[in-house]
Design a protein that fits this description.
Layout lengths: L21 H10 L5 H12 L13 H11 L4 E9 L4 E8 L4 E9 L2 E5 L3 E3 L14 E4 L2 H16 L12 E4 L9 H12 L13 E5 L3 H8 L6 E5 L5 H7 L8 H15 L3 E7 L7 H12 L6 E7 L13 H13 L29
Parallel strand pairs: 4-7, 7-8, 8-9, 9-10, 10-11
Antiparallel strand pairs: 1-2, 2-3, 3-4, 5-6
Helix pairs in contact: 1-2, 4-5, 6-8, 9-10
This protein binds S-adenosyl-L-homocysteine (SAH).
């Protein structure tokens, strides 16, 4: 797969209430000839009650309710299939977008928290050979509202008690679905702003519970540091040496391991947020003891206490010859990193039986 930094030109999804800033929401309500306070009512329906259904907006005048809702909340994403695992506590949803582009999101409920994994692009241009999404190429960037609609759906599902365990809230959000979030920085940053804005201006999430995961687009990492919203940054490293990383994460030919790590360290310095290093353990590819040592050294060379490593056993993807490392090799890799004083935790991987785990999202036509 060739690297693709920019999507092919496609039509834009319709503008949606969730694309707008609070001031723009007021302006567009007024442009419809409505009173400005209607914007707050609409925001409350959307961000507090998670609904865009005019039937439920009984505090709006019945004459204009329908028109307001259909103008402000055009249908952007339509669920066409859900798959469940873990007794219904892991749910993968396939969404069709207005132009028939497809993305997936995965909702995971744990005993004491809930996490949504969202897509920020249809497909991905980063071409990592071990990732199913990377094999699709990039279709297009999602709009802010297309991302936020995935989030609203998760809040609504959880609030409605549709996931076993009783009604609850969404606690965590990870940009680890389809796409490279920092290749779609404008929409992703706007999404983050709205995620953390207090209800009813936004979803009132905590920045530290939002993780932006990147292959290492250095300029965008530096910009994210200056955003002033201390989300958690995850860097998908997968190898500590340029030779191998350029094969596994092709963008490494543009920004090297050292440059990506420097940007990650900078992120920590500016935000005070400990950075995560993602490392898919691939049998006989990147799981050698010396690579764990080299990674430990490179991280420590940039200071202590600023980073932790999340190794994850490779999830299988169609057509790939690679497999996960042996358990003993994984244990040794973790032990070596810890030996360097690096906090290291094997990432829990959910949903691999429904192709919903890291690197398995492909939104295939024939899945339907
Ligand atoms: N493009 C961003 C966001 C995707 S996050 C990024 O790469 O960071 C998905 C995470 O799962 C990334 O860390 C990615 O490298 C990892 N991943 C991809 N394919 C995988 C696979 N087959 N097994 C395990 N992890 C994988």
């Amino acid at each position: 797969m060739p690297l693709q930094m920019a999507p092919r030109r496609r039509g834009k999804p319709p503008k949606h209430f969730a694309d707008l800033t609070p001031a723009e929401r007021v302006a567009s309500v007024e442009a419809m000839g409505e009173k400005s306070f209607r914007a707050k009512q609409l925001a409350t329906h959307y961000f507090t009650h998670y609904t865009s259904d005019p039937e439920q907006m009984t505090d709006l005048p019945s004459a204009t309710r329908e028109a307001m809702a259909t103008t402000m909340f055009p249908s952007l994403i339509r669920p066409t299939r859900t798959l469940e695992a873990d007794g219904g506590t892991t749910v993968k949803t396939l969404w069709h977008l207005f132009d028939d582009a497809k993305v997936e999101s995965v909702l995971m409920r744990y005993p004491n928290r809930t996490t949504l994994c969202v897509s920020s692009q249809a497909g991905c241009g980063m071409a990592c050979p071990f990732c199913a999404t990377g094999q699709l190429g990039l279709t297009r960037n999602l709009s802010t509202a297309e991302i936020l609609e995935q989030v609203r759906a998760a809040f609504r599902t959880l609030a409605a008690g549709e996931i076993p365990g009783g009604p609850t809230r969404l606690n965590n959000l990870v940009f680890m679905g389809m796409g490279e979030p920092l290749a779609n920085p404008r929409a992703v940053i706007e999404t983050v702003r709205t995620l953390v804005a207090p209800q009813p201006e936004g979803f009132g999430m905590s920045a530290r519970n939002i993780t932006v995961s990147t292959v290492g687009l250095v300029p965008a990492m530096l910009k994210l540091a200056d955003l002033g919203i201390p989300v958690t940054l995850a860097l998908s490293l997968h190898a500590p040496d340029d030779d191998l990383r350029s094969e596994l994460v092709p963008i490494n030919t543009r920004w090297s391991v050292d440059e990506a790590l420097d940007a990650a360290r900078h992120y920590f310095e500016v935000t005070g947020r400990r950075v995560s290093i993602e490392y898919a353990l691939i049998k006989d590819m990147n799981d050698h003891g010396w690579r764990a040592d080299l990674l430990g050294e490179k991280l420590n060379a940039r200071g202590r206490g600023w980073v932790h490593v999340n190794p994850i056993p490779l999830n299988p993807t169609p057509g790939s010859i690679w497999t996960a490392s042996e358990r003993a090799v994984e244990d040794e890799f973790v032990a070596r990193l810890r030996g360097h004083g690096i906090p290291t935790t094997i990432r829990d991987t959910r949903g691999s039986d429904i192709d919903g785990a890291c690197g398995q999202l492909a939104a295939e036509e024939d899945d339907e």
